[in-house]
Structures are given as structure tokens and as C-alpha cells.
Amino acid sequence: MPHWLIQTGALGVFVVALLDSSIIPLPIPGSTDLLILLLVAHQANPWLLLLAAVSGSVIGGYLTWGAGKKGGEALLEKYVPARVLSPIKRWMKNGGIASIVIAALLPPPIPLLPFLLAAGALGMSRKKFVLSFAFARMARYGAVTWLAVRYGRPIIHRWEQYLAGWSDVVLWSFIALLAGGALFGFWKYRHEQNKSRTEENAAHASG
């Protein structure tokens, strides 16, 4: 692993966790979990990584909740596929806190973004959302960090044993995908915002 990534590991985990819970999608599910595993296996401070992962994820989730609250159900329809929108609305209305906790605890491929947007769009209070989401993320990343401390080095040893010639290629590809996915997601988010403003201006002009 590059020395610079180890030295800035907690900051990297914070940024990846924030993006992973934000409205900007990451191309690799479970990116935060994988990064924690790699860094703990290379002797990074597990407590610092856990704090970075939870705080980054809660901030990203709060921003997504805020986007849902501001955009309402119209934003849900833009970002959530129609086939899952109805059940997510039903789950959030019948058991909002439980739905957030379960979605934040379970690993991929369980989608997180639709639940975070729905929590804001359907009126879950800020206090309930932050407390339930923070609790679930603490439990999730706490378990990942424990697994990394307990089994991280043997996993990395196996990795290096069987994929020694490809380690750098895989790692840099992972970093490139994260950066590319974040840039594309940001572009898409800005494009949707500009499109919404154009539609609003057109509506005002015709009115």
C-alpha cells in the first residue's frame, strides 16, 4: 500500500464514508469497509478509523436527509427507481427508524441512498434520523473494525501471496474508480439541479 495512503488513512476513510452516504454514489459498494480493512491490516489506528468512518458517514447521511427534506417526493422520484419507490415509502411510513437502522446496518447490495432521501422527504425529524443512523453506523463500522483487527492481517497476507503481482494495479484501480465515481456523481447532481432551475424558470415565465 502506498505510504501516503497509510499516513492520510483516517482522512481518506472520512471522505469515502461521507461520499458513501451522500447523494453522490460510489462505484464500488462497501468501499468504506474495504478501506478500513486495508488500513487496519497495515497498522493504522483502528479507533481513529472507526471515528472517521462513523463521523463521515453521519455527515454524508445528514446532507442526504436534508436534500430529501428540501426536494420532497419529487427528488425521490428522480433518484429512486420506480420499482423500489413504493415499498420504501411504505416501510418508512410504517417503521421509519427501524428501516433506517436496518438499511444502515446491512452490507451491499442493500441500497442506502433511497432510505436516506425518503427519511427527509417523508418527514422524519432530524433528531430521530441522526440518532438512529449514527447508532446503526457505529454498530456497522464497529463490527468491520473488529473483524479487521482480528482477521485483517491474514487476509492481506493471502492477498499478497496469491495476487502479489497485481496488488498495485488493483489498489490504483480502486482509487481511480472512487475518484471517477465521485466526479461523475457530483456532475450528475449539479446537472439535476440546473435542470430543476430551468424547469422552474420556464414555469414562472409561462405563468
TrEMBL record:
Q: Which residue ranges run through the membrane?
A: 6-26, 47-65, 96-117, 129-149, 169-187
One family name in Pfam for this protein: VTT_dom
Decide whether keyword Transmembrane helix is in the record. yes
Q: Which InterPro entries match?
A: DedA_domain (IPR051311), VTT_dom (IPR032816)
Entry keyword Transmembrane helix: yes
Q: Which UniProt keywords apply?
A: Membrane, Transmembrane, Transmembrane helix
Where do the VTT domain residues begin and end? Answer: 35-141
PANTHER family for this protein: ALKALINE PHOSPHATASE LIKE PROTEIN, DEDA FAMILY PROTEIN
User: What is the protein's name according to its record?
Assistant: Membrane protein YqaA with SNARE-associated domain
